[in-house]
Design brief:
Layout (H helix, E strand, L loop, with lengths): L7 H7 L7 E7 H5 L14 E7 L14 E3 L8 E5 L2 E6 L12 E8 L9 E10 L7 E2 L7 E4 L7 H6 L8 E6 L19 E10 L2
Antiparallel strand pairs: 1-2, 3-6, 4-5, 6-10, 7-8, 7-9, 7-11, 10-11
């Protein structure tokens, strides 16, 4: 519910509504899109638009500070997670193969015992992501100081996450190795060359159940 990503009038109408609600919001085009209107939709600023929204998931309120469950030993050849306190600070690839794996892999590091993440719901994560073999992350929520909620299974994430996260239990930590087809493919991103294999440490801290 971020005003940079969604219309303010919609946010104002949805905040506080419980999961399972259906909400109808009527507003002028100017209220929604501003004084420029929405000429791309052939709408005038004085037109009225109606939105009908179903609240299918809400941000988890029971969020752990760190993974919680049974530790699992990673197999030989897997990158090693480097930590300081509860924060992931890096990945050590010194004992991993130089050539990145060709298939999607999910390696359990902590088996949580909370509710399972479900497709189509919001899940709160901490994560650290690096290109295979890199000493620096291209993105990390740990460096920003707070976990973040994402919708899972709604094509808002890379395919690897949508495939792997549903079914994981709250408290889990996993290592996800995503080949290009399950990452960004041939599209270069900021800090990610085209056709890169991506490596993530993901902590499942909150589940909308």
């Amino acid at each position: 519910m971020n005003e940079k990503e969604f219309f303010k009038v919609i946010i104002d109408g949805l905040v506080g509504k419980p999961q399972g609600s259906r909400v109808a919001i009527a507003a002028t085009v100017k209220d929604v899109w501003g004084s420029a209107g929405a000429p791309q939709l052939k709408l005038k600023t004085t037109d009225t638009v109606l939105f009908v929204l179903d609240v299918l998931s809400v941000e988890p309120t029971d969020v752990l500070d760190a993974p919680q469950g049974k530790d699992v030993a990673a197999p030989a050849g897997a990158p090693t997670v480097q930590e300081s306190g509860n924060k992931v600070t890096g990945l050590d690839f010194s004992k991993a193969p130089k050539k990145a794996p060709a298939k999607l892999q999910v390696i359990p590091l902590v088996e949580g015992d909370g509710p399972k993440a479900e497709s189509g719901r919001l899940v709160t994560f901490n994560y650290y992501g690096a290109v295979w073999g890199s000493k620096k992350p291209f993105d990390s929520s740990f460096s920003r100081g707070a976990p973040v909620p994402f919708g899972v299974g709604v094509k808002g994430l890379i395919p690897a996450w949508d495939k792997v996260i549903p079914g994981l239990k709250q408290g889990s930590r996993v290592l996800i190795i995503a080949p290009p087809a399950d990452g960004y493919g041939s599209r270069a991103q900021s800090g990610i060359p085209a056709n890169s294999t991506l490596t993530f440490v993901v902590d499942v801290l909150g589940v909308d159940s």
